[in-house]
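Ticket reopened. Same input as before:
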Amino acid sequence: MKVQGTLKASELSAIIILTIGIKFSDMTPAIYAQTGKNGYWLMPIISFIVILPSALLLLHLLGKYKNTNLIELIRHILGPKIGSVVSFILFLATFGALSMDSKNYVDTINTMYFEESPELILHLVFMFVCVLGAKKGFEAIGSTAWAILPYIKIAIVILLVIVLKDVIWLRIFPIFGGGLKEMVIEGAKKGSVFAELFIITMAYPIVKDKKSFRKGYLIGSFVVLFELLFFFWIYCTFYDYKSITKVAFPFHEMTQYINVGGFFTNIETFFMAFWILGAFFRFMLILYITTWLFGAIFNIKEFEPLVFILALIALTVGSVLGGSIYDNMIRRDNFLDLVTPFLILFPVMLWVVAKFKGELSKE
Amino acid sequence: MKTISCLFACLSILLLLTGCFDKREIEQRSYVIALGLDKAKGKEGLFDITFQVENPEVVGPVQGSGTDEPPKETVTLTANDFVTAQNTANSFVSRKITLDFARVLVVSEELARSNEFLKIMETAARTKELRNNVSLIISKEKASEFLRNNNPKTETRLHKYFQFMIERAKETGIIPEADIHRFFQITEGDADLFLAMYATTKKSGKKDRHEDEYIAGEIPQKGGNPTEFMGSAVFKEGKMVGSLTGEETRMANILDNTMQMEDVLTMYPDPKKDNYYIASRFIKKKDTKVEVIYHKKRPTEINVTIPFQLEILAVPSLVDYSSNKKNKELLKKKIESKVKKTFEDFVKKTQDEYGEDPFYWSLYVRKYFKTIKEYEKANWSEEIYPHAHINIEIDLEDIEFGNLIKSTNFSEVAD
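Engineering reply: fixed in the latest deploy. New output:
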């Protein structure tokens, strides 16, 4: 590690809130809505419950082995060979998310705001900004998160206040929309919506102390869960159950719909500015962590120059993934399903092995 | 090294230019304020699309720029849908046609009553250019004719005209709140009737009636803009099936809690003197209470309570209602029974004539079901609503009498 623990609990919370919280504005709600219909706002609870024990277990393990990050922990417990394989899978999943999601975000920008710009150029600029940010290092990302968090949230509160008059809350009934069983199964499959909770543990050693990490981590996770629930609730009451399955970007459609009185019409660009700030931040972080994982796996101490190369590869992979909005959604859907079991199982595996090795009872 | 990094920095500034891909100056665009849709005469599946374009030079913020150009231009062309029509229109409109600032979508009754209507509305849902908050107006005549005839005398700025006109008419409740968003939510929900604004520029000359019993085109108006917004067009499953008068639209607005209505002036028959009417302001502060008691086997009960207050504005019969308690009580009773009767008749009409409700009441039955499957199976629009027992209660909370303590005693004045 180049720097020694200066990240504060508040900054960690801010990072978690921003990276996961922005998911209410991409295709995640649309994916949930396909099965949950108007009941989908409850589904993140299931996803969270499914993922939380594993996340806590991982936190527990990290606490036991002092000053290790995720990859070092995996290697230490599973041995260099299997450890590297598991870490590499983790890297691939993060990298996949990076290329696929950045492509989706650029797609959104392209369809909703800059229709005539070529997608490749948008993607290029987008990645360029992320590289510039990621190069600054994790500490900078952390303080940026804390600095921009209030602005983004204020913008969102403004949006909520404006949109509340168009919300018909009775639309949440029938409460279990697409069926309780379907919702539980699908919600569980989408546990990886909270995947960032796992990869963020890379930052364990650079947070001030054990207690701050735990505090920031838990506050961040619960706040973000609440935020997702609340926003999904808004979507479910803004759209009726049939329409909600058709809208690809409910957030952007909503900002296009609203007016402030008769004078301020067409105000979506105001919200778009904050949204794009959040999006930049999210990918900055994911890009940095992806590179970090890569560096840790291949024992590259000075991994920060790799940010640029990985961004370029992600850009290439992302632009190869063509297809319509529907294809994008299905791809992301399948990807989330695929990653969830891995995320749930690997902390358990780590714990079982560590237990057998008798390392947990030390101390 | 230094030169390379300097070069790199200079080159990266070029990236900023990518922002210019979508750049288009305001004067290169022409902003469509109203969009009209008609059935084309010749082929099936073709539409006459009308764009009413505002002239930014006349209506822009710069005052006194001294141009003689007209404030708007109306063009009609035949096309498959209104998105491709934008390009075709460029064969005679010099600027890029932009729908971002469209305020109204005018559809002719002829098209609204046909099956084609849903097809073209699908385009509206798909394109992001036409916003979902655009108001839906059904015109009695052809939409192109409606837009050409519409000629507001004192409101040169077309977008303001539509905005104010619709806003005000909505406040008085004579037209419903109807935008594309609501149209899709209700049509796709397939349980309730959707009400669109009804308007016309043509007179159909019926005889005089009470202030809100007209539909568009019947108002005995002299002078002013020929355009009238009054009443609503009823849509069942995405197809127009009838129309409601202004009074009925007001009732629908009162019964539907998802609508907002503020300023309603109404008349009630004077209980003491037969030929006179009492003018009043209808004030509704609380939501209408709608309680649906769902029974699987027997007809569902719907209990509706309408709370409101009245402010008496004029009593032409000069009967003393304000200080005479007995009279006041009588007035209250009479009004309640009158209102109750009109509401009951109207609700009955929706049950018998349309078999569905225009009040979005399907919302209140949903809580009896756990999943959408069960809810759809129970079938609100065909099984539940048409056979429901609907019980309407009127709760006239208070009567106010303006700012006079007593009305003038004119018989004394005559002495």
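The mean pLDDT of chain B is 82. Residues 325-354 of chain B form the longest helix (30 residues). Please confirm and we'll close it.
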